[in-house]
Design a protein that fits this description.
The structure is a homotrimer. With about 350 residues, the first copy, chain A, is of the alpha+beta class. Chain A has 8 helices and 13 strands. The N and C termini of chain A lie far apart (about 60 Å).
Chain lengths: ~350, ~350, ~350
Amino acid sequence: MSKTASGRYFEDFEIGQTFAHATPRSLNAGDASLYSALYGTRFAPQSADTFAQRIGYGAAPIDDLLAFHVVFGKTVPDVSLNAIANLGYAEGRFLRPVHAGDTLAAVSDVVGLKENSNRQSGVVYVRTRGLNQRGETALDYVRWVMVRKRDPAAPAPAGAVPALASAVSPETLGGACPPIDVAAWDFALSGSPHRWGDYVRGERIDHVDGVTVEEAEHMIATRLYQNTAKVHFNQHSEAQSRFGRRLIYGGHVISLARALSFNGLANAFHIAAINAGRHVAPLFAGDTVYAWSEILDAAPLPGREDVGALRVRTIATKNQPCADFPGREGEGYHEGVILDFDYWALLPR
Amino acid sequence: MSKTASGRYFEDFEIGQTFAHATPRSLNAGDASLYSALYGTRFAPQSADTFAQRIGYGAAPIDDLLAFHVVFGKTVPDVSLNAIANLGYAEGRFLRPVHAGDTLAAVSDVVGLKENSNRQSGVVYVRTRGLNQRGETALDYVRWVMVRKRDPAAPAPAGAVPALASAVSPETLGGACPPIDVAAWDFALSGSPHRWGDYVRGERIDHVDGVTVEEAEHMIATRLYQNTAKVHFNQHSEAQSRFGRRLIYGGHVISLARALSFNGLANAFHIAAINAGRHVAPLFAGDTVYAWSEILDAAPLPGREDVGALRVRTIATKNQPCADFPGREGEGYHEGVILDFDYWALLPR
Amino acid sequence: MSKTASGRYFEDFEIGQTFAHATPRSLNAGDASLYSALYGTRFAPQSADTFAQRIGYGAAPIDDLLAFHVVFGKTVPDVSLNAIANLGYAEGRFLRPVHAGDTLAAVSDVVGLKENSNRQSGVVYVRTRGLNQRGETALDYVRWVMVRKRDPAAPAPAGAVPALASAVSPETLGGACPPIDVAAWDFALSGSPHRWGDYVRGERIDHVDGVTVEEAEHMIATRLYQNTAKVHFNQHSEAQSRFGRRLIYGGHVISLARALSFNGLANAFHIAAINAGRHVAPLFAGDTVYAWSEILDAAPLPGREDVGALRVRTIATKNQPCADFPGREGEGYHEGVILDFDYWALLPR
């Protein structure tokens, strides 16, 4: 038995398989500082213990996406070491708050398999749960990824595309958000006067700012998440790839776009669910990321008067300012678009 | 009302205006680690809990400049988003120690306004207070910044250049420094045998070492401070600017120079006040920073036998070693100079 | 007396000299996060408090090499500021666990001196102890370094090459490893089913992955360790050196190789001793590091049934995959080799 992992190929997966991924990871204040330094995020509850405690948290929570990336990173050696592309996300739910001192582990179930028509590869669907040290599910999500076959002649494993919700039902949101004392929410300190009710369906917001990405930054981030996908790290081998460059982890783009969205969505302090996500095009070091958002929907939360949910679609671009809201064009996307991300955010009412 | 901030222009300011800036920020051990990794600072009380506790601190304090940069960063969206240049600092005072676990917020008052003769812009003077979670002022300072007018034809707001002290009075120093047990100060562990009394007015010290700056480093640092000034981050837009490059945050230069100054001023463990600061020329990634210092003055602190104050002027240069002490030349500066920084430091007596 | 340190030259050393190095350094969770983000290390006990506590640690220990680098960094101003090259290590022992909250200081004794035949330089041997806040030796090691003479005509100091063990005796290992509850070791979460007994002498393991290094990364790491050797930081002066570039700290290479070795040695969770280490060739930014290991020996630990020791030789290369195990060739090494590192690791039995 080889001591080194070379990763699973498409024909190695089967429906119902479960992976208890290595390695659990304790998150602490240092991870929060690094996350802040990598993205410049400014949402008030995550930034300041005082703000968090005043509204009802025990302490500043760990950023939702930091928790997501750490859980995602664990799945790579078992699921996507031989991936061609990470295709999409659905049914992502943030169920319990994560705080400094918590330890996250990840478990994935194979929930769908579909061979590509060229028989060179197939799409693997996994539902991943991020578990805290008490064994509670802190977050879960489905992702699907195109994985190479070891042997194109191998028979495809049985399976099908799973039925996935086009959006997480707003009735189920809010598990990771404690009851918020809205009267204690300081709208000067949070950076915007705009509450949940101030946004309307169809509203578009250009987040204005742009940020250029360096190789050192995305590699430091991706290692922080213990994500080992070699396309992000190895210029010596990637020089021979079709792009000739290291690919930036898609989650890095999501976090950059989320941080940029503060300018326009400063009170959208919590990602409650990920409805859908698509990495439309790759990002490379030296590119500058911009973003804009559209409010797709708004929904109250059952039994809660403190916070409401906005369904937000954030589009990220590269080297393309977003004043004109570049997005879908015909069958595809504007050439500058790199990310199409659809999520539920909570805001104070 | 637009959801996104586009920043104030010169004609939007008025004397007496107060801004309670977003977003408060809790500082923790992770921020201290990152600060150490970004600058390589080695002052013993900030580096080691043991050293700090032995001399009288409860624990290693947060570096004075880290606290300063975090407070400064908060002011950018309200004050300097449309700034052409950050011109200077005065009357900076460090009034209370900052420790891991403290949360800093910032409030600024507009204390001076002066339109430039070209009517395209004006200079805005703000006094900023950094407040801890108890509402105490941990530090305050005045800075002035040149801000664009939205409309050159707009009437200039009323105001004038405020009267500012050329230096902070040494009688007022020391609020952020607890009583120090000098007998417990280990001069081997602190890196130098030189006490306050070993320095003389006019003494010049070449700090010898040089450090090259990378894009990833200054952006990580500036985001750690939640400073969002776009000139530091967006190569796509800065390519069209007069420099064609991202500008490095001036505070990054101050911290680099301060860290270099350890070699010669190892026991100058605390910045008690900022008398004046001027960013003489911009720094860009790839440049190498050197520094030298001159002792401008020395003063005891009223009622304290433990520490004394040195008034230090630190000059930082780029791509220019400082053995010959490059500084002022005629009306201007030696071409390599980027920073002229005048501060009071405390040393054990 | 000059206020600035210019470092010792070969003729300034004498046998029996002791240096109490500046500056002690408290290690905390932020340092562990940064270390993780710089190398992507995934060994389970260091990654997760839960895993560590289940097997017998009080909390996740600080990575052995992070502690080593911090101790090493302190020695630079006193020992190797005028070094030409760091030549080797021996008799390195990890004697007590290091945890977040601990403070490390360093003391070195000069144990050997030998002038080079050209009389321009000589080799200095120092034994360095890393002391925790209780004054206990957490780790110690011997290193030797080639140091310039200030004056080639100066008489060489008396001394000789010290007798050094070719390997640390396995009977002395394990001081930094608490008793491990192997029944509680979760081999799924740790990333590999392979125990101590699954490895055999002579076994070779290609660690497969490669990682490209950026200037910002190695400088951030080296500053985290407060290592001030100017060759790592100053491109302005290094442009005139024989390489024309900044040299990457050798310890950075050791940590990169160790992190890569997870793929094949995932349960080798603790470095108990460093038998020998040699930096065969320099590493520069832009290079991609690969690694492979050979099992040189296996030994039980006296009186312990929980863990066993493997003597591992890890070879790191640059821009050279290791499927063919490039290593010694005749009198020298394969041209891609940069590191030859021989250590004892502990694994669960």
